[in-house]
Amino acid sequence: MAASYDLIVRNGTVIDGTGSAPRHADVAVQDGRIAAIGRIDGSGREEIDARGLTVTPGFVDVHTHYDGQVTWDDRFSPSSGHGVTTVLMGNCGVGFAPCRPQDRDTLMNVMEGVEDIPELVMREGVPWNWQSFPDYLEALSKRQCDIDFATQVPHAPLRVFVMGRRGVDREPATAADMAEMARLVEEGLDAGALGFSTSRSLFHRTPDGALTPTITAGEEELAAIARGMRRAGKGVIQLLDDFQDTTAEGATEFAMLRRLVELSGRPLSFTLLDISLYPGRWQTLLREIERAHRDGLTIRGQVAARPVAVLYGLELSFHPFSTCPSYREVDGLPLEAKLAKLRDPAMKAKLLQEQPSYRNPQMLAFMRSVANMFVLGDPPDYTPPADRRLDARAAKLGITPLELAYDLLVSGDGRTILFHPGANYTDCSDANMASMLRHDHTVMALGDGGAHYGLICDASYTTHALTYWTRDRKGERWPLPWAIQQLTDVPARAVGLGDRGRLQMGYKADINVIDLDRLKVSAPHPVHNLPGGGRRLEQKAEGYRATIVGGEVTYRDGEFTGAKPGRLVRGAR
């Protein structure tokens, strides 16, 4: 008698996530797991005809910031619209737990500055029905969502929870402080956190320009936490670091990372970027990673699949004129009224002459670097040629790049988005990014979903990775099985989620059915669907015929089915 299954995906080209060659096969699902792969004679309670389509594991994004959104929304948009079936939150040392009631404003202030989540959205949306980190996980365990989610213990709220105002002011931790932080990290890991995260980046500041609580934390503090992780015997370490001390000869800061891995016995990953201001730094860091692996230390670089870029526009969080004094006259007006005032030649002349003012000097300098910006366009072009950069276009017109930026912003319907690649696109080339992505000790990541609501929209990187690197790139293109492996098995294993990321017997039935010929990403656009009417960037995709989480179809042709099988993932698998 032929077996029956909950679901069968038939006649597809299966790419299983291991890097193996594609094969024509059926995939059967029973009780949320892969039950059979091959020619399946049985029947399914539900069947999907995948003839002419590609069947892959669900994608795993290990760098997101859905820590707040998960508490008010049952959909992990935009990630879940791009084939992602599991996300890891709590990155870069920021989050909402642990937290005492008197410290909520502090954490919201940090999240607003670091991750561009408006205070009103957090005040309206975050329920704060927790204090300890285990309390937070307990609250999350009651959520039913479109995809699975896991989290980490973030350093900033941990430091504030233990040290109060001293932590906010970045005072050195006492021995008692460090012991308590280590204990709470152990507690969080035992409750189900996948790791611990921190930030050491000067870009991470509150809206008033203050550095975040973790940036100047000493090595002794991090070492105490590392020893706590060794006692727990579980978890990964994630951090963002500027590596300012890095030269061609080596990296002092990286040496500290090595010591943390030695002390903890746990894997570590960090954001790896090619920044034009620091030529060759990425190569030095990759050499350090290689040396660490030769010495038995697991350190990985997290690399974005496309240029790391900020988006600017009249409807977004910032643009080159948004911090000019005269812009306050129009800020907050409806778009049409704003355009009418900005098109006044007198207003234009005034804004072109004014000096902007903003309390985050790094961000201010970045948003005024208009020469290096492009128009993103629709469909979006994330690797535009140098002659489309604003400095090149302005030179042909005989005007300054700043004036061209102004004219572009107020042109048409006022919805032009300026695209500013700050990393991974040095000299308008993707060559360095390709070298980082193809390295054996890096992981494709950095979707940043759930944060930077009006500034960045990189959660669609999974779709871009498949369309650009395997199909549309001019020059070398990568094998599709390799790219699928980088989106599935590699990130899953990097954070200890060994029960997913592959289409193999017994693995979790997270599956994508994709029409690769039709696969494309649309231009990002603002929507106002956050708590309190807050704005965020949404970005859609075409070509995902079905996304399946734990055996349940959550999306068909990009439309949400209403199924919410996604749950909190506690601990490594």
Polypeptide structure, described:
Strands 1, 2, 3, 4, 5, 20, 25, 26 and 27 form a 9-stranded mixed sheet that branches. The protein is built from 19 helices and 27 strands. The longest helix has 17 residues, at 175-191. The model has no long low-confidence stretch (mean pLDDT 96). A hairpin with a 3-residue loop joins strand 22 (525-530) and strand 23. It has 573 residues and is α/β, with parallel strands linked by helices. InterPro entries: Amidohydro_3 (IPR013108), Metallo-dep_Hydrolases_sf (IPR050378). It holds the Pfam family Amidohydro_3. Residues 46-555 form the Amidohydrolase domain.
Largest sheet: 9 strands, mixed
Which whole number gives the mean pLDDT?
96
Strand content: 15-25%
Radius of gyration: 23 Å
- Low-confidence parts lasting 5 or more residues at pLDDT below 50? none
Structural class determined from secondary elements: alpha/beta
Total helix count? Answer: 19
- The first-to-last residue Cα distance is 34 Å
Work out the number of β strands: 27
Helix content: 25-40%
The general outline is globular
